[in-house]
Amino acid sequence: MSLFNLKNKSILITGSSRGIGKSIAHHCALHGAHVIISSRKMDACETTANEINNTIGNEVAFPIAANISDDKQLELLVKNTKDKLGKIDVLICNAATNPFMGSMLDMPMDKFDKVMNNNIKSNQLLCNLVLPDMVARKDGCIIIISSIGGLKGSPMLGAYNLSKAADIMMVKNIAAEFGRNNIRANSIAPGLIKTDFAKALWENPDILKSVLTNTPMQRIGEPDEVAGVAVMLASKAGEYINGETIVVDGGTTVT
Predict the structure, then answer these.
(1) CB-based contacts of 134: which residues, under 8 Å, 6+ apart?
(2) What is the dihedral of CA 120, 186, 97, 163, to 10 degrees?
(3) H-type helices in 86-152, by residue range?
(4) Fewer CB atoms < 10 Å away: N or C end of the chain?
(5) From CA 83, how far away is CA 126, in angstroms rounded?
(6) Handedness of CA 67, 125, 13, 253 (dihedral sign)
(7) Among 30-34, 126-130, 150-154, 203-207, whose mean pLDDT is lowest?
(8) What percent of the chain has pLDDT over 70?
(9) Is there a catalytic annotation at residue 160?
(10) Taking Cα atoms as reference points, which of 237, 245, 240, 243 lies closest to residue 190?
């Protein structure tokens, strides 16, 4: 059996109707998992689920809409996932927001609160909702999509970077507390990836030039290049990795 086999695994992925989340869902399904496609809009979730199911040739992806800013919707997301799949073997927190670019001095506090709520609190709540069942089964995997922004400062993305640094520490704390229950928690820190979410960065010639100047591979990443790491962490291949952050940035942070 392949180390990367995810057969019979039930995986909940937030923000999975497009971008990195969609790629993770697609590749987890290709490796045998049943996946929940979740984002704010049900039609987008259904479109992605249908696309994956048509590719696989079987019903392995299921849409459940939820807004990560709403605690009650997150509770229902977990409940409905368990009702549909029976259990949650792997939670992948990918959904995030970044409503402001610029100096921290100019950032309205309501936008700051939105970043902290959507990028930290929602992940903490989802982890708390799935952990009791994982503890009872003595098995579980949590993956949070962070960012290289969580590893360094920025004059333009201060609050976003703060939130992503918190996600990195969140998985360390989960690993420290629940590792004895055979639960693994890790984060993935992508660099600049060609997604709609990061479009304001890679479509800006000055920003793109700055990124590429500091990236040894001289290109930005693709969603599939993050998905491969998620598949590894969710499978037997990543069974002894816990509390870590895997950087996927083409070498940007080493220069």
Answers:
(1) 88, 140, 178, 181, 183
(2) 50
(3) 109-116, 122-137
(4) N
(5) 16
(6) positive
(7) 203-207
(8) 100
(9) yes
(10) 245
Nearest to 143 by CA among 5, 7, 6, 14: 14
Q: Which of these, 224, 229, 231, lies nearest to 247 by C-alpha position?
A: 229
Tokens of 245: 């952050």
Q: Which residues pair with 247 in a beta bridge?
A: 189
- The pLDDT value given to residue 26: 98
Can you say whether the dihedral through the CA atoms of 19, 169, 8, 45 is positive or negative? negative
Is pTM beyond 0.90 here? yes
Phi/psi of residue 250, each to 5°? 65, 10
The amino acid that residue 21 corresponds to is G
| Domain annotation for the chain: domains and CATH numbers | 10-193+222-249 (3.40.50.720)
Band the pLDDT of 77: cuts 50, 70, 90.
very high
Rounded CA separation 154/140 (Å):
34
* pLDDT at residue 200 tops 80: no
Which residue type occupies 29?
A
**pLDDT top residue among 185 and 206:** 185
Backbone angles phi, psi at 52, to 5 degrees: -65, -45
Is the pLDDT score of 61 beyond 90? yes
pLDDT at 211: 84
Please count the residues of the chain.
255
Residue 208 amino acid letter: L
Q: Which amino acid is at 141?
A: C
pLDDT at 139 over 80: yes
Torsion angles phi and psi, residue 55, rounded to 5: -70, -45
Q: Which is catalytic among the residues 160, 187, 226, 238?
A: 160
In the chain, the DSSP E strands lie at: 10-14, 34-38, 61-63, 90-93, 140-145, 183-190, 245-248
